[in-house]
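job 3f2a | input accepted
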Amino acid sequence: MAQSVSTMVEGGKANTGPPLGPALGPLGLNLGQIVKEINEKTKDFQGMQVPVTVTIIDAATKKYDIKVGIPPTSALLKKEIGIESGAGKRKEAVAGNATLEQIKKVARMKIDSMLANDLRAAVLEVLGSCVSLGVTVEGKDPMEVQSLIKKGEIAI
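job 3f2a | predicted structure (156 res):
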């Protein structure tokens, strides 16, 4: 039976300590090699928490598989617009401002893991994350931008 360990690691900074070490160490796998592979696969997501799953395919041959997920939409947005965190009180404060191109870029990164079936729907989902983070889009409330897209006044 395949065994797996799923965790969140900081992009490019996985190490042999918890949670990977204690979970994989007793299985006799080469932790150094696994951590090196995880760091290589997650290096583009530095500064973000990335979901990683290590599946032991065959304990006897020490064969394993590493699957790297995509960071949460909020993490991608924060990195893209260069903010540390969202606004604590989103109705009263603005955490940052994104361009429509930045929103499209995040939507393209996430589209495979979204319910959206096209870029327009993915952009609308990312705009929803902007609402909860307190991020404006080209100076406008993200809900206003969603409405303009739905009316066809902004083309995606």
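job 3f2a | The first helix runs from residue 20 to 24.
job 3f2a | closed
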